[in-house]
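User: Can you predict the 3D structure for this chain?
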Amino acid sequence: MAIIRHDILGEVECVRSVRSRSIRLSVKPSGKIRLSYPLFVGRRRALDFLESRVEWVVATRRKLAARQADIVRISRAEVERLRTIARRTLPAKTQMLAARFGFGYGRVTIRAARTKWGCCTSENNLSLSIFLAMLPDHLQEYVIIHELCHTVHHNHSAAFHALVDKCVEGKEKLLDRELRSYRIPVIDE
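Assistant: Here is the predicted structure, written as structure tokens:
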């Protein structure tokens, strides 16, 4: 491994690898750049590849920086506050929605899931993220309805989406778009 200094990009980690089958260029969320290439490729050719991708690296760094700026950070104390609210409200909301639409389910667990708002197991147990407590009520209900619909269709088929859409009175796409504007926060350690 070697670190080179590029005029525009700054430091670039160059790695000649036995496992590499082609020249690869990656940009980490931190902005760090890695250029890896196989043994049969010369360093000059790898650096020429890097030069041909400078604009891509700059654009990728810009996108990653914008994403980092959008990240919401919360404290451990806030996580515990959300956990308390979620445990107090989400199971009851799930029970009410299941009764309204005629769904059956196993148990509801509340977790600090960092990648999904909720999920449904093959046994029809629901797991809901504590971070749902940060969302407006109508989006909390949308996520719960989405998971309850998985008790009928364990996939994202057309039949599944038709059922969700029926339950939310034709607003599935609108609600999904709105939900995507929210991010699960990062917990400050």
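The mean pLDDT is 93. The CA atoms of residues 31 and 61 lie 6 Å apart.
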